[in-house]
Amino acid sequence: MRELHFYFDFISPYAYFAWCQVGNFCQQHGLTLVAKPVVFGKLLDHWGQLGPAEVPPKREWLIRYCLRYADRNNLPLVFPPQHPFKSLTALRLCLPEVCGQLQIETINRLFHLGWAEGRDLADPQVLLDGLCTISPAPEKWLAMTQTPEIKEKLKTETEQAITLGVFGVPTFFFNGELFWGNDQFPFLADSVAGKSFDSIKYQEILGRPRAIDRKVRNPSGDQT
Amino acid sequence: MRELHFYFDFISPYAYFAWCQVGNFCQQHGLTLVAKPVVFGKLLDHWGQLGPAEVPPKREWLIRYCLRYADRNNLPLVFPPQHPFKSLTALRLCLPEVCGQLQIETINRLFHLGWAEGRDLADPQVLLDGLCTISPAPEKWLAMTQTPEIKEKLKTETEQAITLGVFGVPTFFFNGELFWGNDQFPFLADSVAGKSFDSIKYQEILGRPRAIDRKVRNPSGDQT
C-alpha cells in the first residue's frame, strides 16, 4: 500500500486542520498514513525563518483566519490557553517507541485536546488526563518522554525531516515529493491519481539564476 | 462603492495568481479594486522574514506548487528568466502618479508579461515593449520611474503598508481587515457578505500569553 507521510507539530493550528482531514483523505485514496512528529521551532531555527506567531500582524491574521477556516469547514476550534506552547512532551508521546500501535489514536486525542478542547498540551496533567481513555499506561508513557532515548529520538526525527527539506508544518510526502500546507489536498489528490507537473520544465526553472538577493542573504546585493 | 485594497509585488507568483482572480471577484461582489504596489523585499526586511525563494527547499516546493496550481486553475504560467528579479521599476510604473487612469490595464499587462509570457520585468526594454499597447507615452512613464519623487512615492507606499501590518503579498484589505494570501477569496466573500468571526473571542485569544519563545526572539527562552 502506498504511504502518505505527514509531518506535524501540535503547536500549529494548520497542522491540526490538516490532521482533521488527512485520515479521510488516506482512506479515500487507499493510502497508509505515516505520522511524523517534528519540532517546528527546530525547523525554523535551521532554515532561519520566523513562525507565523512570531510576526505580530501575522499572528493576528492567523487567529482570524483560523476562526474563519474552522467555521467554514465545520471543525471544532478552541484556542489553547497559551500559544506558542512547549509541545515537546506531547510530540514525544506520539513516537511509535512510546505509543506503539496506538499512534494514530494518540495523535487524534492530543490534537483534539489541544485545539478542539483548548487544553494546555504543555501541562503533563492535561496529557495524563487526556490519554487515560487511549493508553493502557499513561504514566509509563509520560515517564518515557523524559528518558534520554526518547528525547534523542524526537531530535533525530526532526533532523531527518530537515535533511528531507521539511521547512514547515504540516508537510506531506507522497511518492518522494514534498507538499507544504493545509491547502495541499487537491494537489496531493492529483499526485495520487498519477497527474504530475512537467518535470523537465521544473528542472529547467530550478536551474535558472537569481537576479537579486537581499542584504540579509548576500552583503553585496542591494535592490535600491 | 465598497473598496477592496490589493497589495502586490510582481516578484510574487502568488500575487500573479491572485491578480488573475481579483478583477472578477470585485465585479461579482460590487467592489472597487484599489491596487497598491509595494516592495516585497522591504516587507521582509521590516518583519525579519525570509521570502519563499530564500529557503532552498521552499523555493523548490514553490515552483512545483505554481506549476500544479496554474494547471488546475487553467492559468497561463511561464516563469521569468531570473527569479527573484528587481521589480522596482515595474512597480513604480503602476503608481497612479505614473500611469494615472490606466493603472489596472498597466498592472494587467505587466503581470501577464512577467508570469504568462515569462519576460524579464527588470529589463527596461521589456517594459517599454510591453507597455506600447497600453500607454500613450511609455518612454515618458519609464523616465518618471527614475525621478526622486516617484522613487520616494513607492517607498512611502511600502512604509504605509507596513504601518497597516502588511507582511506579505498578495494582501487584501476589506472593511479594515487584512487578508493574506492567494487562498483568501472564500473568506473575503464571507466578509463581503457580512459574515464575520467572533470578534469578542478573537480579542480574548489575542490577549492570551505566549508560553515559550525561541532564542532568536528572546535570549532567555529555551524549549529544550
What this model shows, in words?
The structure is a homodimer of 224-residue chains. Helices cover 50% and strands 10% of the residues of chain A. The first copy, chain A, has 224 residues and is α+β, with helices and mostly antiparallel strands. Chain A has a single domain (2-206), classed as 3-Layer(aba) Sandwich (Glutaredoxin), CATH 3.40.30.10. The first copy, chain A, has a four-stranded mixed beta sheet, with helices on both faces. In chain A, helix 1 crosses helix 6 (103-116) and helix 6 (103-116) packs across helix 7. The N and C termini of chain A lie far apart (53 Å). The model of chain A is unreliable at 218-224 (pLDDT under 50). At the A-B interface, helix 2, helix 3, strand 4, helix 10 and helix 11 of A face helix 2, helix 3, strand 4, helix 10 and helix 11 of B.
Question: What descriptors fit this protein?
Answer:
224 residues; alpha+beta; homodimer; Glutaredoxin; globular
